[in-house]
From TrEMBL:
Residues 1-92 form the Bro-N domain. PANTHER family: BRO FAMILY PROTEIN, DNA-BINDING PROTEIN-RELATED-RELATED. This is Phage antirepressor protein KilAC domain protein. InterPro entries: Ant_C (IPR005039), BRO_N_domain (IPR003497). Pfam families: ANT, Bro-N. GO terms for molecular function: DNA binding.
Amino acid sequence: MRVVTDDHGEPWFVAADVCAVLDISDVKQAVERLDDDERGGCNVPTPGGVQTVRAVNEPGLYSLILTSRKPEAKRFKRWVTHEVLPAIRKTGRYEHAPQFAIPQTLPEALRLAADLAEQKQALEAELAVAQPKALALERISAADGSVCITNAAKDLGIQPKRLFAWLSENLWIYRRAGGSGWVAYQHRIQSGLLEHKVTTVEKSDGTAKMVEQVLVTPKGLARLAQVFSSAKEDA
């Protein structure tokens, strides 16, 4: 960006360069909207020789920033209109953190906006990592002992059919040859993720049979909460 300093040491910014940064297409119209003391002309070298071009001073520069729709400029505008100006109206001055210097030039303003955007993205990334863990802790605290796979699916907010399929594909449960019920893999039981519950059921003829059921432990529910939370984020 071309900047010319006048006899008083004040910087003047070439309007065409400013508008290009701010995605303002009509330079003439943008400059004419400024107050008389915010606009002027300056001599700059061009391939055709020194020419007089439209220019804006620092107040004019900020006026153009406040009219730009570019994301970086909009963030800067929001900072000015929502923080700086209200503070000045209330207290007569703006107190800012030592590391948060008020931008004095357009490049500094856009750099500040970009830095703030990066900080926001970093916080969102940290939150994305923390959310599955928080959800897992919520599942543990809400779980009252081990639960059947169907109830585990409800806690996870997914269809039971999907959970059964995932547990089978990822070697948590299996069916014995010729059997219809699900059985937990031994290493999942040893890891404290699953357990078996054996229930005696009385039949209509007065006899009894043993029914074996796979249960998901609070630890297993926490692990599954992390898995399916991550899957939702990737979807």
